[in-house]
């Protein structure tokens, strides 16, 4: 019997409680979940790829299931193929996410029809959380404890102190 492998891709800059919700739930759907940590040229990361991978590895250590954290810098469908994945796991927060993800799923289906995209709705309490907004709140000195795991909060606060807070 072949293992069902899924890929959950993202920049995870930083990993949020919303990401963790999707990881926990996605891990239940597949035999092995590969978390693909990637660079995104359109985003300005707060953390290096190495720092993000270490953070995600630490945060998923206690999550049930076979979970692997892998760096990638390629087309998602090529990465999924290399991992032996048959499923891409994507989290949705709002209608705006759906429109973007729907378009991406269609393009990915054209690139590699052997891999399906599965959408998971984020927990209602976690739907507004976005890494971009977490960073912005932190940069202006706001409290991000409701949005990220405690150890991630400490890392973000330390990074903000290092690079300098805005509005001060």
Description:
- This protein is α/β, with parallel strands linked by helices and about 170 residues long.
- The protein is about 40% helix and about 20% strand.
- It has 6 helices and 5 strands; from the N terminus they run βαβαβαβαβαα.
- The chain has helices at about 15-25, 50-60, 75-85, 95-110, 130-140, 150-165; strands spanning about 5-10, 30-40, 65-70, 85-90, 115-120.
- The chain has a 5-stranded parallel β-sheet, sandwiched between helices.
- Helix 4 links the parallel strand 4 (about 85-90) and strand 5.
- The radius of gyration is 16 Å and the shape is globular.
Task: Provide key terms for this protein.
single chain, 168 residues, alpha/beta, 6 helices
Cα Rg: 16 Å
Major β-sheet, in short? 5 strands, parallel
Strand content: 15-25%
Distance between the termini: 59 Å
Order of helices and strands: EHEHEHEHEHH
Overall pLDDT confidence: 93
Short description:
The chain has helices at 17-27, 49-60, 76-83, 95-111, 131-139, 150-163; strands at 5-10, 32-38, 66-72, 87-92, 116-121. It contains six helices and five strands; from the N terminus they run E-H-E-H-E-H-E-H-E-H-H. The longest helix is centred in the middle third of the chain and has 17 residues, at 95-111.
